[in-house]
Amino acid sequence: MHTLPSIITEVALRGIDRTYHLHSVFRLCHEVLPVMERQGSGVVINNASITAMRYIGKPHIAYASAKAAVIQFTKAAGCMYASKGIRLNAVVPGLMFTPLVENLGASDKEEDREVFRKITEHNVPMGAMGESIDVANAAVFLCSNAAKYITAHALVVDDGITAATGTGS
């Protein structure tokens, strides 16, 4: 899945399939759910994004729509398979400092990327973007017995950015 800007009127229709790549989520479940059913248990963790829940100021409508679909797929499938001992959940990362987010600053100049990072971090309630390990820890929790009663859930890992006004602290 790519996150190139996608203004509705400028998206090449043939490129939509790459962006709306729910095939990977569906295919994973298509392959593993029968195995999990036979063993009477299992956990699936899908990956979404806060762009599914809130406009982040960038024209990534296809990506955001695809991630919203991942969340709804996870909720529906989680309900459908709960009685079979299978839990399906999603992690919903916010602004994590990764190369993908850094590239949203779209500049070759280090000082421009640093300005982008400071502006972005200003809008995160704790004042700093998270890291990949923060999302990984959420996924590990959802896979653990500590989360045995959690299914069909989208766990937002975003330091409250989806609840914040976006004006900084």
Automatic annotation (TrEMBL):
Keyword vocabulary terms for this entry: NADP, Oxidoreductase
Domain of life the protein comes from: Eukaryota
PANTHER family reported for this sequence: DEHYDROGENASES, SHORT CHAIN (PTHR24321), OXIDOREDUCTASE UCPA (PTHR24321:SF15)
Single GO MF annotation: oxidoreductase activity
The family this protein is said to belong to: Belongs to the short-chain dehydrogenases/reductases (SDR) family.
Protein name, UniProt field: Short chain type dehydrogenase
Statement: the UniProt record of this protein carries the keyword S-adenosyl-L-methionine: no
